[in-house]
Structures are given as structure tokens and as C-alpha cells.
Amino acid sequence: MADGRVHVIEYSDLPDELAFATTEDCRLRFSAGSIAIHVLSRSFVERITADGKACLPFHRAEKKVPCVDEADRVVQLAREEAAGLVEGHELIQAANQRAKTITERAQREAELLKHEADEYARKVLLELRDQLGTLDGQIEALIKTLGSNRFWFQTTAYGADLRATKNPVTVGLAIGDDSGTASVNAVIK
Question: Could you say which of 29, 44, 63 is where a domain stops?
């Protein structure tokens, strides 16, 4: 109150001791106030002040407003952020290049390992064919490498009674730890 009238004090004019004053329960003593100018229309103000009895006081509030100094600070922050993004972009490009190099090397090594595995399997199959071909002429085997860990094989057995065998026949081939089966229709004579 001032001069017996209630007033709303501009926050920038409120002394610090009042601005930070608290109640017993630690709440701000002066926390909010509004004269609700935002809901007054001009015609309403003109109507209530026309006879001169109701007069609204003017109050001048001087406040610090961001200006050139603040703008310079914002621009500097933007420049620093942009530099960080550029540096980050360069790091990402370097990381992507490193990842590409590692991937290419891994692909070359995988191809080499695949080739070596195919060669090993071909060698084992040839040895198997040779071993099967020496069983008193009773079994002949033909094995062909198709690549990519795939093989074609054919066996012929002589001197065995296979008339009770019913098609399809499950044929298996194992080389070391690798094995596979196929269901085939055997030609039995």
C-alpha cells in the first residue's frame, strides 16, 4: 500500500529485501501480482477515465534488454557449435573410412578362408574317391566341387543285393566336422 491505496510494484523496481522475503513456511512473500492490463480494452479504459474521476497511473520501468553484446555472445556460441559440428563431421568421415577399410579387409580374409576351405574339401573328397575306388572294385565314387562349399557326388556299388532298398534313399557324406545329407532316387539294377 502506498498513500492508502493497493499497488502492484514492477518486479524490476522491487527492492531485493522484499523480492527475496519469505513467509514462515519458506514461500516467497511477494510472489506474483498482475494488474491485468492484458484483459483491458482501449474503449473500456477510455470509458472509465472519461469523466476524470478514475485515473490510471503511468509507470516507467527501465530494464536491461539483450543488445549487441548479447547478440555477439549468441553469434560466438553459434560459431563454436558450428565448429564442433564440422569437427564432429570430420571425425565421422574418418570413422566411416576406417570402418570401410576394416570391412574390406575382413571380406578379403573371408574370401581367402572360403577358398582355402573349398580347397581342403576338394582334397579330402579326392582322397575319399581314391580310397573308395580301391575297395576291390566293389564301389566307385565320383565327386565334383561346385564351389561355395557345395559338392556333387555319385557312387556305384557292385556285387551287393540292393533289391530290398526303397526310394527315396537318404545319402550322407561327412568330411571332418562337416557333413550333409540328401534324399535321392537310386537306380538299382
Answer: 63
